[in-house]
Amino acid sequence: MYYYCALCDNKRKSEVHTMKFSSKAQKCGLSPMRKFHPYAVEAEAAGKKIYHLNIGQPDIETPPQYFEAVRNFEQPVLEYAPSPGLPVLINAIQKYYDNLDMHFEKNEILITTGGSEALQIAFNCILDDGDEVLIPEPFYPNYNTMVNTCGAKIHPIHTTPEEGYHYASRAKVEAEINEHTRAIVCTNPGNPTGTVLTPEEMRMMVDIAKEHNLFIIGDEAYREFIYAGEPLQSMGQFDDAADNVIVIDTVSKRFSACGARIGCLITRNKELLSQAMKFCQARLSVATLDQIAAAALYDVGPEYFAAVREEYKRRRDTVVAKLKEIPGVICKCPRGAFYLMAALPIDDTDKFQRWLLTDFDDNGDTVMFAPGAPFYGTPGKGMNEIRIAYILKQKDLERAMDLLAKGIAAYNSRPGK
User: Checking phi first, is residue 101 left (phi over 0); if not, alpha (psi -120 to 50) or beta?
Assistant: First the structure.
């Protein structure tokens, strides 16, 4: 026979409410690119059409080689891949870098589940509680989660919209280095700013890392997307910094294959490779079929990249020209990637974005972007900024920019504002 005890039941309820969660997890925030999804769902349910500029999901078609490789897969068992990656993909990546006059040995390339896992593994290998990573702000917000879960924190290198978010200054970078600094991250070309380092600036950043005994992580997901005819560059080209350089790469943006989730970590630092292998083995392996299909993408010829670059350049020029027509907007023309940051004549772009989804439309249309504050490590910065991903077709981009202009005018003329 069982007896009910109110005192015990209340105690159990109290215990449920006091479950402990990791302080590292609690330091992490939601993605600014995705946080407005519930509002977007409601807006679309109400009949609004949304022009999405908030997420860097290209609309460029994935090369057919990927799907052909999937269709031609005939192994009777879908086995685990080796923890470092399938040789067919490693060979393809090695050849890609050889064509850029950068040679890596096969055992210096580790295949990962997207560039995100490559970054997380790199941070796990080099960061301890209390360590710091120098990253120019505004930066890719998911860096926060990756660094925070290692017990470390981001130490921002400050930039401004007025200077085009330029950060590659020896004085500016070295002023932020302290006894806790373990690494510098250069997203090149940049997300969210579209900034591109010159060869001289890359050399300088690597020299700073060497002189201060720091790792320098080149997050190079957008390497192909540069618009002034510059040669393709990588931190991996500096052979004299073998122990310092970590290259992060991925097929996601290069081949418009974000859903493939195939990336890689590349370094000549043997001890780092040894430490990284522990994490590669702990997660067993990267998806076998996606690796095989991703390897086929590296057969795509230069004409593919030339066409894609030209398309994105047109889109960039459209967005920049439209933004310059809006009174009070500050925006420098980005040189790479397919993003830009802009300062708006708005006090809080987070509130503005919510209002665009809940209270605004123009003939049933509205627009989404990513509010700027979560791209910053400095509290209070970026409140009036937004990130735009110019991943829509030309006509849609023009309409989206017109909606942004109309939205700014309507928002700033609200009664009682």
Answer: left
